[in-house]
Design goal:
Two copies of one chain form a homodimer. The first copy, chain A, has about 170 residues and is α+β, with helices and mostly antiparallel strands. Chain A has a single domain, classed as Hotdog Thioesterase (Thiol Ester Dehydrase, Chain A, Roll). Helices cover about 25% and strands about 30% of the residues of chain A. The first copy, chain A, contains five helices and five strands, in the order αβααααββββ. A five-stranded antiparallel beta sheet of chain A has the order 1-3-4-5-2. At the A-B interface, helix 1, helix 2, helix 3, helix 5 and strand 2 of A face helix 1, helix 2, helix 3, helix 5 and strand 2 of B. Strand 2 of chain A pairs antiparallel with strand 2 of chain B, so a sheet runs across the interface.
C-alpha cells in the first residue's frame, strides 16, 4: 500500500465509497453534527507551545500561576488545531475536503491539561458562487466544548465546497 | 539555570528589563511593528498536517495536485500558529504576554513549501475595561505575508492587556 492510498483511505473514512462524499447540493442549513473527542494532556500542551506559542502560561505550571490564566493553559491556536483535527475526522465528509476561506472566533474559556474536547457544529448558510459555478460557500458555526460543556473555542468559518458535476 | 529562568528570558527577549515590558498605557493606535521571518518547508507542513489537519492537500504532492489547492499547501491553522510564534518573538513585549480573546481572520492565498513568512501588525483600537480596571482590550490587525508580499493570513485579534499598577 502506498502512502497515497493511505491518505485517500483516511480521507474517505466513514464513507463507503468516494462517490458518497458530500457536495454543496447535499447540505442544508440547520444540519448539525458532533465530532469525536480529544483528551488533551500537559505534554501535548507544552510541545505545541514550545514550537508555536512559547509563553510562560503555556509552558510551565509554576510560571503560569502568576499570569492571567492562573495555571497552565493550552495555546488558543492549539485548541483551534485540535478542533480542525476533530472536524476532519467527523462525519461531514466533503468532496473537496475542508477548505476554509476565513471567519470569526473566540476563546471564552481556557483549555487545561486533562480536558476532553469535542466539537458541535451547525451549518448556518449555503451560498452558490456566481463567479465560480463549480463551487459554493458554506458557513459553519462550531463550538469546541470541554467535559464541563464550557465553550473553549467558538468558530464561524466560511468553507469552499464543491458542487456536483456530471462526473460525480 | 532552571527551566523557569529559560522561559522568563525567552519571554522578555528584546527588552532590557522586565520593567520595560509594555502595559496598556504604553500603546497607541497606529503603532506598527514587523516580525522576523519564518521559512516554511515541506517537512514542517506535512508534520503539522499529520497531527492536526490530515487532508490530502496538506500531506502529499501527488494527492494535492487534483485538489482545489493544485499542489501541496500548509494547513491554514499551521499558518496561524507560525504567525503566533512570530508575534511572540516580535518587538511588542506585552507585560502579561499575548493573550487573545477572539477576532476575525482570512486565508487569501495558500502557503507553499519554501515560502518565507513575516507578520506586519498595527494597533487598531485600545479600550480600557470598566469591569476590570487592571486591564484593557487592544485590537491588533496583522497581515502574514510571503516573500512575494501576498497576504497568506489576515488576522484582527482582540488582546487582553494589563494596565500599569503601582507595582509596575
Amino acid at each position: 500500500m502506498t502512502l497515497l492510498q493511505d491518505i485517500k483511505e483516511t480521507f474517505v473514512a466513514g464513507s463507503d465509497e468516494p462517490g458518497d462524499r458530500l457536495h454543496l447540493e447535499d447540505l442544508h442549513v440547520g444540519l448539525r453534527y458532533t465530532s469525536g473527542t480529544h483528551a488533551i494532556d500537559e505534554g501535548e500542551i507544552v510541545a505545541f507551545a514550545r514550537q508555536y506559542d512559547p509563553q510562560p502560561f503555556h509552558l510551565d505550571h509554576n510560571a503560569a500561576r502568576d499570569t492571567l490564566f492562573g495555571g497552565l493553559a493550552a495555546s488558543g491556536w492549539h485548541v483551534a488545531a485540535i478542533t480542525m483535527r476533530l472536524q476532519v475526522e467527523s462525519s461531514l465528509k466533503l468532496a473537496g475536503g475542508i477548505v476554509g476561506a476565513g471567519g470569526e472566533f473566540a476563546w471564552p474559556t481556557p483549555t487545561r491539561p486533562g480536558d476532553i474536547l469535542r466539537v458541535e457544529s451547525e451549518i448556518l448558510e449555503i451560498k452558490p458562487l456566481r463567479s465560480r459555478p463549480d463551487r459554493g460557500m458554506v458557513t459553519i458555526r462550531s463550538e469546541t466544548r470541554n467535559q464541563r460543556d464550557e465553550i473553549v473555542f467558538a468558530l464561524s468559518v466560511r468553507l469552499v465546497v464543491q458542487r456536483r458535476t456530471d462526473n460525480d
